[in-house]
Every structure is written in structure tokens, then in C-alpha cells.
Design goal:
homotetramer, 119 residues, alpha+beta, four-stranded antiparallel beta sheet, two-stranded antiparallel ribbon, 3 helices, 34% helix, elongated
Chain lengths: 119, 119, 119, 119
């Protein structure tokens, strides 16, 4: 590349990496209403370890878990349609936020905030 | 198979499934000394959802995490050499326990208890 | 354990490990009718690396992939209901085979052959 | 966000998602020199299914696999230090390329091309 990516572009890239990581590390994990809380916390804390990551919020929809649970065994495997996530990264003075939301059964991930600080 | 597997054989099979699941679901997860506890709990609670599973104990070796951590970024990715696990299943009146222990950098999994109840 | 597990019990344990590994390593992988073949091959060849593993056969149901595919994006994420697998292990002169089959949307894994050789 | 992200920003985000997905879906997969080729192909073809993804090239370093392989069992688990990847996405007329390269044992991912077409 003739020029280096700008910090805004890097921040968009970094928040994308975090989303892909979160999703594909944990998709398929056995989850029940009872175990959803510990999974939410582990997902958030593990991704917060990654470079530039400031904050991760993960919410697993209990109703969606219940509906997807197998009758006999009482649990489901984590999919994107059960997830609501918000990830915030910063690169230099740029802050980027992206969110995952299930839209018609497809987990859409999109950038929702991009801010260049005055610090 | 001419005959069905015995309950003891089924219990050995089931505890094997749990180990493979635990390991390959979570290997590669970003982990630091600070986030190890939430990951231990999520690993145990998620696998406990699986059929026949009675108890899962997961311990992540903080020293191993620290040693494996990248200097710049301060975290590692979970591997078998950081893990100490014990999984207990029951099939009918048979109880099987297996454990994972790192032996010369290879995570060995083996059956450590097999018991047929008198209930 | 007072006594070591028998080779039959170990073979049951080992084939269980392989199933859990296969399933939780690859569940959630993006898959389409066009990419199913390379995924089948990689799943089989990767698990065949594991100790005691003699043969792994993986078949991804194209019709199930098509039905699960998101309309807009044309692909699905791999789940147990798309999978048909057969795994063979041997421990000493014992051969164990297990199979995965989706029963009412739950991927049931069970031992289908257990044989002690006369070699 | 007051304004929508630009196509360039979206392209940076999308290529980031693909990298995080590729890495965390497949990290931990059992791999040997013999099975590396099928894994490379499955990794590339599965991620190419994702929205906006034009091309994925994955190369697994055979020497690194050999060095990381356990002596007794002859295979390793896939980590970032064995991987060389290039992913290309397009969003509208914007093309973004990112690459993964192991730098001092840490898998660095960075944007290497960003181009706005004249189509």
C-alpha cells in the first residue's frame, strides 16, 4: 500500500477482528439458561484481552436459548441469533464501536460509532 | 454390533466425548491471568450441560498462562498444557471419571475411575 | 482406580474423544454446497491425526446445508444436523467404531462396533 | 453514529471480521504435514462464503508444523505462528486486502491494500 491505513481505518479493522474472533471461538458452545451468565462473562473477558480492545458486552438471549434447546437434553448450542454484542476498540485517539444484532436469523455485525478524540 | 455396548463402555465413550468437546471448543481462546477464572467457570458449566455429565472441574495454570503470554500484548491462547481437568459422567449406575494432564507438553486424557453402583 | 481400564474401555473412551473433537472444532464453520467437500476432507484428515485413530468418514448433507442457508448470503454454519460421521479407532487389538446421526435435530453419537482381534 | 461509515471503513471492518473468523474457527485443529493441504483448502473455501469476501489464501508452514509436532503422536495443533494468510474483500467499489504474518511469535494482522475503484 502506498500509504499506511489511517487510524480510523485501523480501528474499523480491529473491531472487525474482535467480532469474528468472538463469534467463531464460541459458536457451538453448549449453553442453557443456567449457564448463559458464565459464558457471557468468559466471552467478554477473553476478547477484552486482544490488542486495542477497550470493552466487550455480551448478552445471550435466554428466551432464544430456551426455544433452541433440545427437549430431551435441555440445552442448545450457541448461535448468532442468541447473541447481542457490543465491542469497543481504540487505536490512538480513534474510538470505534461495533454491534452484532440478529436480523432475520442472520447475525449482522456493523459499525455503530466512530469518533476521533481531541485528546 | 451384535450386542449393544455395556453401560460401562457407554460411560467410557461419554466421558471421552466430553473431553474432546471441552478441549476443541475452547482451545485457542484468548486468556490472561486476569480472565482465567471466568473461562474456567464457563468451560465447566457449558460442558456440564451435555448428556450424562455430572461434574466438570477445570483449572487453568496461571503460571503457564503467564509464561505463554506474548510480551507486548499480555495474553496467550488457551492450549492443553495450561489445563488440568476432571470430568465425571454417569450412565445408569455406572460412574466414569477421566482426567486431562499435560505430559511432556502433550495433553494426555485418561480414565481414572470406573465404578458400578449398588443402587 | 484400583485396576487400569481395559483396552475395550480405552477404545470406547478414545472414540468418544475423537467425536467431541470433530464436532466442537468444526461446528460453526461457514459452509455452502460448494465448499462442503473441502470441509469434509479437512475434518476427516485432521481428526485422523489423533492418537489411535484409524479412519474418519465425514459426510455433510447438501440438502440440509441448502435448507439452513441464509437467503441473502447463501451459506450456513455447520451444525450436527448436517453431519453424518463414522470414526474408527484401535487400542491394541481392540477396534471401536462410533457414528453420529441426527435424531430429531439432536446429533446422537453412539458406539456401533466393538471387536477384539485374534491377531 | 451521526453518519454512516464510509465504504472504505466498512471494507476495513469486513476484512477484520474474516481474519478473526478464520483464526478462531480453526486454531487448535490437529494438523500434520500430511493433512495441511486439506486444511488450507477448507479454511480458504469456508471463509470465502462470508459476505463481501472475494478471495482467501491460506498457507500453512510445513516446517513450523513439523517443529511443533509432538514426537510421539506426530501432529500439532494449528496456531497463528504456522499461518500465512491473505484475505480480500470488496464493499461496493472498495477493495481491501489484509494479511496475517507471525512477528516474533505473535500473529499480526494488518491491512495491506485499500483501493477505491473507478468502475
Amino acid at each position: 500500500m502506498a500509504e499506511l491505513p489511517t487510524r480510523v481505518q485501523e480501528a474499523c479493522f480491529e473491531v472487525g477482528i474482535k467480532f469474528g474472533s468472538l463469534y467463531h471461538q464460541f459458536a457451538g458452545t453448549p449453553v442453557s439458561v443456567a449457564s448463559a451468565e458464565s459464558l457471557e462473562r468468559a466471552m467478554a473477558e477473553s476478547i477484552e484481552n486482544q490488542p486495542h480492545c477497550r470493552d466487550v458486552e455480551v448478552s445471550i438471549d435466554r428466551e432464544a436459548v430456551r426455544n433452541a434447546s433440545d427437549r430431551t437434553h435441555g440445552y442448545a448450542e450457541l448461535t448468532g441469533t442468541m447473541l447481542d454484542c457490543r465491542i469497543e476498540v481504540s487505536v490512538g485517539d480513534v474510538r470505534a464501536v461495533a454491534e452484532l444484532e440478529a436480523i432475520e436469523d442472520y447475525p449482522e455485525m456493523r459499525i455503530t460509532e466512530l469518533e476521533t478524540g481531541t485528546s
